[in-house]
Amino acid sequence: MIYHLGNFLFQISEAFSFCRLVNYISFRAIMAALTSVIFVFLFSRSFILFVHRQCFLDQVRETGVHSAFDKSGTPTMGGVLIIGAVLSSMLIWGNWNSPFLLCSLGGMLWFGFLGLLDDLSKVRMKSGDRGLSERTKLVLQGLFGLVFAWICVGPYAPLGENLSTKLYIPFYKYPLLDPGPYLYGAFIFLFVIFVSNAVNITDGLDGLAITPALFVAVVLGIFAYVEGNRIYSSYLYYPYLRGAGELTVFGAAFVGAGLGFLWYNAYPAQIFMGDTGSLAIGGTMAVMSVLLKQEMLFPLLGGLFIAEALTSQIQDKIGVRWVGRRIFYRAPLHHNLQHKGIAETKVVIRLWIVAGILALISLATLKLR
Amino acid sequence: METPVNGLIALISALALVVLITFGSLRWRRLAAREPRILLSGGGTGGHVNPALAIAEGIKNKEPNAKFLYVGVRGKAETIIVRRVGYPLLFVSSEGYPGLKLSWRSFRFLCRLCIGVTQSVIILFWFAPRWIIATGGYVSAPVILASLVLRLFRICPTTIFLHEQNSIPGQLNAVLGKWVDRVLLTFPQTVSFFPRNGVVVGYPIRHSITLVPREEAFSRLPFKVPEGRQVVFVFGGSQGARTINRAIVDALPHLLPHRHRLFIIHGMGLARSSDYHAVEDTESRIRSALKPEDRVLIEEFYFRQDYFHNIADVYSISDLIVCRSGAGSLNEISRMGKPAILIPKANLPGDHQVMNARAMKHAGAAEILFEDTIMENGRLLEKLEGKFLAERILRLLQDPDQIEKMAANTNRFLRRQAIERILSEIYRDNSFNNGIGCPPVPFRALFSNHRLLQILSTAYETSPRSYDPLAVIGDEDDLIYYRHRAAGLLSHQAWQDRNLGIKLIGLTHYKEKIPTLLHMLTDRSPTTRIRRIFGGDFEQVGFIRRNIVQALQVMNHFDADVEKALLTAADDPYYEVRAQVCRTAMHFGSAIAGREVWMDTLMKKLDDDCFEVVLMAAGALGEVGIDGRALEALLNLKNSHYWQVRDAALKGLSRLVERRVISPSPDLLCRMAGFILTSTDFRPHFSIKETFNMIQKGCRDRLMIEEGLDASPLPSEKAAGKS
User: How far is A343 from chain B (nearest CA, A)?
Assistant: First the structure.
């Protein structure tokens, strides 16, 4: 809104020349972050109260870890706050002509909606294990994955034709290979589904999902800034992505919202993000990294999410369901650490540290190529 | 140009359809009013077809000009039986109900059912029946569904009757029965499923058998029964039952000492398939099970024949019946008023034979013996130990009061004159009071395996020490049945089923199966290569072995064999098994305290790679240790990386002190000084939740007390109202 207004004003009159400021991505990014964090601070208390009144509370679930206290009864669906903050901040500071912004917001809203359905059905069935069925979730995620893959490799690709299907890997300047639209589209499809579920699985302890997600958003925001800037991108040998800078603004808004949410979500949590939040965050991160050609960086950058998802899937699908034994003590990773006798707070902070280190290494790939 | 023509065509065809339906409906009403036209449906097995034919015969005797049409499914029992009797037969498409699940089978079921309903609609319009008599099974579902739909639009004037043969209605019958005019029931227990329209009529049969005087019966039989013998009639239906045939042969040696007061008549059955030849199998079993001199002796009190054509005579001279619990057999027993030992066929859909047997047992009319499912030469077989059968027969025969009581109860169990009762329902002439809306006899359904596991494990976890499966389940025969069902799971291919079986065997305290469990625990046959690549090891997977050890603990059974198996399992490659062995050793601590072999094993486990095993072993050492070695070993754990291990070591030490193995002394304090007491975990203390829970608990306790006071007068009130 302000972006378009500012552009309009300084075009009609010299008196509004200060409005040129809105063309600076750094300025908009900072303002977007501030706006979303203020949004969360303004609304979260009344939102938590609202959720309590509606009885949208976390339901009991069999995790296999005997926590010293039962977390059921904590309000959930905090993801609504995050999505609301990002959305309102982008309404004010975003450039709504940018396909980058529209794709990312689309991903966030679709996955947020999907998570909301899941949360609501868990509340209605009064059981943490009886949300949407796994199949329904996968179908709905896959639907977005299909549309997004088509956008990425199809005729309306935001990256332009010569870049859209090329695969870049970290620590290497040039595109590794060009798998062609079908193979690359299938890869995007699977990537989106996997990442969104990975965040969903990680969201098991207070504050565990949100902080690593912030790290990821910061790093991706920096990448967006570099790749969207003609000078920096040519200096660092990145493909120049015209308009990718918009994702810096988006990432900043996301960081602001996440910080505001962590305020209430830190141990002991007053609110959980629920599937609404975790799926939305996962979807957004997947979309952002695909748009920035950093999908192969994600296994490193979001290594924590990947590890959580893999441990959980290996334990459940291979170990418990098929081979008939536990492969890890417990799964996912954070429950394994808890089982080994590490307190929840300690597990969370240790995993934050791991995520931070991974983010630093990922940042290093900017130059190490 | 095109659209009006299309519209006109649509209008005309719609009008034509309405006219056709109106005409068909009027014709239907006219025909149905003019003469009794009866549509029979039902089948799948003979048990569904024969009642339908019996009812048809009853109607025919009353109204010789009645017209019949039988609707069945191609290739099922009705194809043969109905053709032989000679009623016109038509086929519709249908399939067994596969359950509420998204799958290819349920899709096919829906498609077939839709086709079947369409076929039935056409048949119904053409035949125009006055009455529909359905005897259940999925075969009759399309016809009932079609007529219900037509009735919804007031097109069909037909009255629908549904006869249910078993004590628990099949799934389709249970749903459709709610909408039909009358559900004709065999068992009084079933009324609770159809409180609105259920009537108890009994089981209709075509040529009813009646009791004949003993002397008359004796004169017609091909064998002589000496004076003063009690006669037991053993049979497994017209085809024969392998379990029963083998069990009675195995029982003969046990019955031999009582041959002067017993006489056993054995109907072996007509089965001559490649799978089972009743007569040959029985003869060879007699040769192998009995010594030659015994084989001569048994002739004094044992008579066998493949089939008795004059079965009423055999019934008449019998004092006790041993047979299956199909609805047909139960009806015959009830009609003859004979006490019975029922051996329900296991692994049937819906366990209906078990349900029937339970209904009869709850009425005090029969006793039940369950067959076991075992693996023999790589084949699954049902088996009943001859010893148990012999014991049960002798015990019953020694108690004439019991036999008399059972006979009286059997006599009352099922209603007589089923056909007359059904006719009175069809013609609504009130010649019988079949008790529509009569108070339903409460009848508890059996639990599914998963539900049973849930119930039992909750009970066990609440109080492991005072756990008794019998108290939880309430009925001894039910418990025995659950045990057999659990044991049947052990031979399944999927390890998940075997695992469930193991858990259930433990929780139902099925101690006879312990040797099997121990064999499975130490079985080292490898699993498939692909599973081994992904971390699997043996055919009996890790969970199964862990749960076997746990089951031994639940059963609280310890002997030399168990000990040997546990010691082997202590070196199992899967850590959870080792940990569970240590936990079980802790449980049996008093039995193994001070045993050298256990001390060695547990000490070795203190060096295990897996911390779970170490901490369990430390706990166990606290129960088992009897000297300074345990103390030394536990003190060595003071620098362990895991706080849980250090914690377990301290708990072990305190158990040693409690058991007076070591005494609390300044010396001990001094040696414990080096313990690392930091911990990476803590227990949060949420004051607000605790306060809330405290008040909540108070309120709940109060509520329980009030409910307890309120609940007690209720049963007596009910009893007073009944009498």
Answer: 4
